[in-house]
Amino acid sequence: MLIELPCPIPYVPFMNHDNYPNDYIRGILNGVKTIAMVGASQNPARPSWIVTKYLLERGYDVIPVNPGLAGTELLGKTVYASLKDVPVPIDMVEVFRNSEAAGPITDEALTLDPLPKVIWMQLSVRNDEAAARAEAKGLQVVMDRCPKIEFGRLSGEISWQGVNSRMISAKKPVLSGKGFQKLSLNRS
Amino acid sequence: MSDRLPGFNTLAIHAGAAPDAATGARATPIYQTTSFVFDDVDHAASLFGLQAFGNIYSRIGNPTCSVLEERVAALEGGTAALAVASGHAAEFLTFHTLLQPGDEFIAARKLYGGSINQFNHAYKNFGWNVVWADSDDPSSFEAAITPKTKAIFVESIANPGGVIVDLKAIAAIAKKHRIPFIVDNTMASPYLIRPFEHGADIIVHSATKFLGGHGNSVGGLIVDGGTFNFAGDDRYPMLSKPRPEYAGMVLGETFGNFGFAIACRVLGLRDLGPALSPFNAFLILNGIETLPLRMQRHSDNALTVAEHLQGHSKISWVSYPGLRADRYHNLAQEYCPKGAGAVFTFGLKGGYEAGVKLVSNLKLFSHLANIGDTRSLVIHPASTTHRQLTDEQKTQAGAGPEVVRLSIGLEDTQDLIDDLNQALDAA
């Protein structure tokens, strides 16, 4: 017979950051609208510029953050020096900096009012301590993933490049309504 | 569908394919078109700048071909793949992405004769120098490494049949020296051997053989294992240096663990041009849906025929790793326990002349230079595929004068045995 023991620590649904369920990522990408891109670059050859452009084209309001570029325009958007300078509520903070820098950026994000819903650290960026601090405040966290790759994977767009999306479905991909070569995150 | 990775049979049918977004067509459509309309000018710029996923022109990518690419990437457990016009094109674009003039690569001596020719002769024009090693002796690969070595190349099951390569031993040497390990997995197919699980970094295929499986379409695949970190590695400038054609983009950095496949596409396929036709991609995809069934039957049939031949009075030896006494049987048990494939060789006591006679006498086996067909095939390598090699090279490649190669098809084995018996009697 099972006996329920009292749990000394309050239960917090921490995510397994080694293996995200597709529905977790899809839920985040479907649920956010305003994305602060910390570490945005004006160099079109840099991954952060490419991801910013891709997400803007998918209808996200991407706000570039980079103290070195503050006040300039990047892909038609004003660049801010820091998260706290952004004048609108932020749904998701995308960290395009190294793993160490992700710590203070996360802490700054956790001082915002209202709080962001999501901290997303770019592919190769992982800071488990920062993730735990964010999750303790109820935020969702994604680490070591690229939102462009994840959007492309879940929508089916990345399959056009022969990339293994690791997705199997007998449901149709759905055009996003903005042309033939953009798919939505949901299948029907 | 749960996030658990589906099994091999499911992937063989479904990976990469979905009902068509525009029409609902369930089978993968043949997108027989050269080009694709851009959504707008900005979209065109994004595609040409590699900033968006999508289709431009069928030399660079095509939606039928991309289903094939993802299908094979999934079956091999790789990060991405590139479909090209032939197995030779797959090898060519792989080496083009890795090698600069003056560089070297090490290849196993026992290879498909066409690959031996490509490496020995065609590559000389590019200043790519092959150094041969013995796949039965992994230490010979280590001994051949120099500062110019940029890749190691072997076949998992080697032509002209009957050789199983110790992939883990050679992979360990490649890893120790930080050299990409390329495995041609044509003869095994991912159903029998999955080389990424044994340390390969890149896999190439002639899809013409078991993937397509019906002898109707030439095609090739390059699969990126995502395991070799090219970013920041000066030895591989195609992946680690800013590309002038793409505004200074560093492909190995921007595309991470599928950067090699992207580089083969946007630097190799785009500029050199050996694109696969969508129609061939469609036929190869159709073949792959039954790959697990066919590969098992091929292997089972081959074992039955090999067991019969090893007792025949006109035959001096049979080289098939499925046979218990074979020198590669233990490696076969380790690497391909489900079966040792369809292709094997045997030696005729009557030598070269008997080989020529045998292929003429066979009535059900087709005499042609291919393997991996539903039909059973026969060839006498010394007078055909390996003809351009010297006698010494022929013997080293396992294609001496008395050698006959069979590719066992999916027919009833009794019919195959009867045909071999009558042809041997008359030879």
CATH topology of the domain at 22-147 in chain A: Rossmann fold
Percentage beta strand of chain A: 15-25%
Order of adjacent strands in the largest pleated sheet of chain B: 1-9-8-7-4-2-3
**Strand order, sheet with most strands of chain A:** 2-1-5-6-7
The level 1 CATH classification of the largest domain in chain B is Alpha Beta
What is the CATH C-level name of the domain at 22-147 in chain A?
Answer: Alpha Beta
Helix segment tally of chain A? 5
Give the tally of β-strands of chain A: 9
Characterize the overall form of chain B: globular
Keywords (chain B): Pyridoxal phosphate, Transferase
InterPro entries (chain B): Cys/Met-Metab_PyrdxlP-dep_enz (IPR000277), Cys_met_metab_PP (IPR054542), OAc-hSer/O-AcSer_sulfhydrylase (IPR006235), PyrdxlP-dep_Trfase (IPR015424), PyrdxlP-dep_Trfase_major (IPR015421), PyrdxlP-dep_Trfase_small (IPR015422)
Cofactor (chain B): pyridoxal 5'-phosphate
Enzyme class (chain B): transferase
What does this structure look like?
With 188 residues, chain A is α/β, with parallel strands linked by helices. Chain A contains five helices and nine strands, in the order H-E-H-E-E-E-E-H-E-H-E-H-E-E. Chain A has a domain at 22-147: 3-Layer(aba) Sandwich (Rossmann fold), CATH 3.40.50. In chain A, the strands form three sheets. Chain A has a five-stranded parallel sheet, with helices on both faces. In chain A, strands 3-4 form a two-stranded antiparallel sheet. A two-stranded antiparallel sheet of chain A has the order 8-9. Chain A is globular. Chain B contains 17 helices and 14 strands. In chain B, the strands form three sheets. Chain B has a seven-stranded mixed sheet, with helices on both faces. A five-stranded mixed sheet of chain B has the order 10-11-14-13-12. In chain B, helix 1 (8-14) runs antiparallel to helix 3 (63-76) and helix 15 (351-361) packs across helix 17. The longest helix of chain B has 19 residues, at 291-309. Chain B is globular. Chains A and B meet through helix 2 and strand 8 of A and helix 1, helix 2, helix 3, strand 1 and helix 11 of B.
